[in-house]
Amino acid sequence: MGSLKLYINTSPIVFGGVQRSFSEAFFVVLGFPFDSTSSYHPGARFGPLAIREASLNIETWSWRAGMDFEDLGCHDLGDLAIVLGDVHETLRRAQEVLEDLYTARKIPIVLGGEHTITLASARTQRNAALICFDAHFDLRNEYLSQRVSHATVMRRVLEVVNPEFMYWIGVRATCREEQELLRSRKLNYMTPWDLRKLGTLEAARRVKEKIKEANKVYISVDVDVLDPAYAPDVGNPEPEGLTPSELLDMLKLLVDARVIGADIVEVAPIGGRGLSAIQAAKIACELCCLIYRAKTSLTTAGRTFMKTR
User: How many C-beta atoms lie closer than 10 Å to residue 35's C-beta?
Assistant: First the structure.
């Protein structure tokens, strides 16, 4: 647990405004204020703070889960002490912190920050299925002379996890290199048009069928999966995205007791705050409520935690 002292900077704002002790918390919020590989809109390093600020100013009742986020056990650990410009050392630190959190049987909720954080999560949980909500596949082998960046992160993840247990949802921006890889590796993905044609119930059923053999599930939400009308201040906005309701409805249908953690990334707030931070805060609150509901038995107290690790 030494990494929690070595590599963490406290935050002036705690997510949701309610701080549980580390020992009693189900969820641990970790900020990832890093954007050194960003290629279009910089500023994702300010995402965690903007998301925390937004979380103080939205209502926290989840209609989908039927509970209030304020009633859950959440501990905001603070921000990872990143090394500006050094993605490899930053991810090494992130991996060490995440490993300590899993050892302590916590469910990490990472606020970003650029999407490279998902690689650290994948390295700590190589046997977990990965559901990735994203406008982009992030499957280039190299981008701007970098093999580890926001545009290559899922290519590196493919090297450490089972590709059969990976599923992209909401993807609509790609290149020829990625298209060739998708065909050759027969990777699983669903565009916004696929989702709307199928409807959320059938779309979620197909995703769950693909990952039904996995014992653990990790969820990554790149906020640019949403249409720029709903989330304009992200690292790489892309037209024709999902609506917030489509995203949250899919999360409701996909979250089950196997979920071990999540990240919400690529918020690059304009002027220090913005609409994307509000969306990210809402997503984080909903995810916590949905995960909690999935991991608790229906006892009269409603507080029995169903261990999945």
Answer: 25
